[in-house]
Amino acid sequence: MRQVDLTEYQTSGLLGAGADYEVRLANDRRTSQSVVLKRPLPQTISRRMHLSAENRSDQTISFYKHIGNSIPQLSPMIGYSEKTDHSSYYDDTLEEEYTVLVFQRAKGIPLVGDARSRILKVPIGIGQNLFALYPLPYLDEREAFYIQQQLMEMQSICHSNGYLLLDLNPQNVFFDPLDKTVTVIDTGDLIVLDQPQSTRQPRDIRFFYLEMLKYYSSSIHPPNEISEYREPHGMRPILSIEDELYAISQYTSASSSVAAQKYSQIIERIRTIEYLNVDDFRVDLTAFFDKVRIQNREDIGLADKLTIWHEAALLLSDPHWAKYDFAPEEAIATIPKIET
Q: Quick one: pLDDT band at residue 19, thresholds 50, 70, 90?
């Protein structure tokens, strides 16, 4: 990781924009490696309102220098530019100083696509539903819920080193079905645990537990229709711990299975602040997912639900996903076949 000269990279297109940053795809002129360039949103730069994004960039650089590039689940940072006017590089007339962050391009697709693509009927929730919530073809594998396990491993490393990384919503998490790896592409909502928080409601590790349940757990029963795989799940913002715990509890409220009982226990332990660290939470959540795995594997209707799952997986061939480092035909071909 180093300070870079942006002329080392040839931009090749706009990937998207989030709350704070514009993201462009580029290639290293020397190695042809694909990278992404992140800068504050041009509209905030033009109004000189990009200070908060700059502060986040500074914190991100500090975090990556300390530990970020050693965490496998985080998108590796290659470097960062000098804080200067980049108008000539971006061919615009902003004429303001800011920092550009350079990251290795993530493999796979975001678990949830850009919400604006809904207008074009893009199945933006397909990754989240297929691979995070209902990984049916992987039920014979003990760790069928790969995504949740990798996110908990990532947070365990962060937390033990004095950080809490939040906003792990599925738009910020890429998954590559070929090697079953997760890449978190946004570390902007980073809390340094030994520093005071500027937010009105200080956040602690319970907010990570909420995110894991909100975005990465659901009704225990897989969808009966392809259309149910299209839409994202749990994407409302977290307003309060109590309200969120109640909403999450409704996921399994209609079930009395052992998996649902375990889920209720987890919610109660979050409410009563019993989990002292990520690893304690991880033990219980892993046990819950194992019960879900067994319950779905033993479901007499699994064959029909698998058929629906595989038909839904064909939505990965939608042209929307072509802009990512992702080969849908190859990914679909490597999905395991299980006997029913």
A: confident
Q: What is the pTM of this model?
A: 0.95
Q: How far apart are CA 304 and CA 308, in angstroms?
A: 6
Here the tokens at position 176 are 């590559």
DSSP 99-118: --EEEEPPBSEESS--GGGG
**How many domains in the chain?**
2
Average pLDDT estimate for 30-59: 96
CATH number, residue 66: 3.30.200.20
pLDDT (0 to 100) of residue 196: 86
Residues 212, 323, single domain; the answer is yes
Among residues 41, 44, 21, 39, which one has the least CA distance to residue 84? 39
In the chain, DSSP assigns E strands to 2-3, 9-17, 21-28, 34-40, 77-80, 84-85, 97-98, 101-104, 109-110, 163-165, 173-176, 181-184, 190-192
How far is the first Cα of the chain from the last one, in angstroms, to the nearest whole number?
49
Structure tokens at 308: 């629906």
Q: Taking the alpha carbons of 13, 18, 19, 23 in that order, is the dihedral positive or negative?
A: negative
Strand ranges for 119-189 from DSSP E:
163-165, 173-176, 181-184
Q: Which residues touch 296 (CB under 8 Å, ≥6 apart)?
A: 136, 139, 220, 222, 302, 305
Mean pLDDT for 28-39 is 97
Is the pLDDT at 198 greater than 80, yes or no?
A: no
